[in-house]
Design goal:
The structure is a single chain. This protein is mainly alpha-helical. Among the domains are: 72 residues, EF-hand (Recoverin, domain 1), CATH 1.10.238; 87 residues, EF-hand (Recoverin, domain 1, Orthogonal Bundle), CATH 1.10.238.10. It contains twelve helices and two strands. The protein has a two-stranded antiparallel ribbon. The termini are far apart. Pfam families: EF-hand_7.
């Protein structure tokens, strides 16, 4: 049985796909022959702190193949390399996206996780990491070409402005998110204590007693969508309103909303 990955830290799915593609120079879906030697040189240097001599490289190669080459073909496909590089646990694996809607908080968690560079967009490399994880539960032998084709298909279908990347609203078109939780309170000039607690508890996803991080972002997204469900909300929009809301209602300036602070945002009986 293979040991824990050879890398000293876990890597994201985005970085994993980038690494695989960088060594799979002929694009055939395998790291083999000279590609494998180049990959192992990098791994050896990271592990040992020096470049390997030819005998050291050959010994290291046999050691790694014996541990991770599951089908004994002398090369690595994506699923085998994933174990070597110790890729972080799939976030999408926690959500059964095809079985029903996810909460708006979970949707924002997904967005935040895959927007690795925090640009406000899911760009090509981030999308490849995203769709690699999306394919894994249904295909244990994912090929790089399958990932690229899926990215291209989804961009064709859902990238409304044809810029080759996804904004927040474009991702929401194919991830089934729950009906806007705030919508049930439409028309109420004030929230009862019961309604307010229901609202607070829904967005307090981790039960910390405070609305923070992705929870605030999800709450503000739902507030904006209640005002106009067809508007194209971007990450920049949410960051702008988040700053305004926290300046007005975060009385202790800790970047979170307590129950008392959130009650200032929503009129309560």
């Amino acid at each position: 049985m293979a040991e824990r990955g050879l890398t000293s830290r876990k890597i994201t799915s985005r970085d994993f796909v980038k690494i695989f593609n960088s060594f799979d120079t002929d694009g055939n879906g395998y790291i083999e022959k000279k590609e494998l030697d180049e990959f192992l040189k990098v791994m050896y240097e990271e592990k040992q702190g020096k470049k390997p001599s030819p005998p050291e490289l050959e010994s290291f190669k046999q050691e790694v193949l014996s541990q991770y080459d599951e089908n004994h073909d002398g090369r690595f496909q994506m699923q085998e390399l994933q174990k070597i590089l110790d890729v972080e646990e799939s976030l999408l694996g926690k959500y059964k996206l095809k079985e029903g809607p996810i909460t708006s908080v979970d949707f924002i968690k997904i967005w935040t996780h895959y927007d690795v560079d925090k640009s406000g967009f899911l760009e090509q490399d981030e999308l490849e990491g995203f769709f690699y994880e999306m394919l894994q539960p249904y295909n244990q032998n994912v090929q790089p070409q399958q990932v690229k084709e899926l990215v291209s298909s989804y961009i064709e279908l859902y990238d409304s402005n044809k810029d080759g990347k996804f904004e927040l609203s474009e991702l929401a078109r194919f991830i089934h998110v729950e009906d806007n939780f705030i919508e049930q309170f439409r028309g109420k000039s004030e929230l009862s204590k019961e309604d307010f607690n229901k609202l607070f508890n829904h967005y307090d996803d981790d039960n910390s007693g405070e609305i923070e991080g992705d929870e605030i972002t999800a709450l503000l997204r739902d507030i904006l969508l209640q005002q106009n469900k067809n508007q194209e909300i971007t990450q920049a929009d949410l960051e702008g309103i988040r700053t305004q809301i926290l300046e007005m209602f975060d009385t202790n300036k800790d970047g979170k909303l307590s129950r008392d602070e959130m009650s200032l945002l929503f009129s309560c009986k």
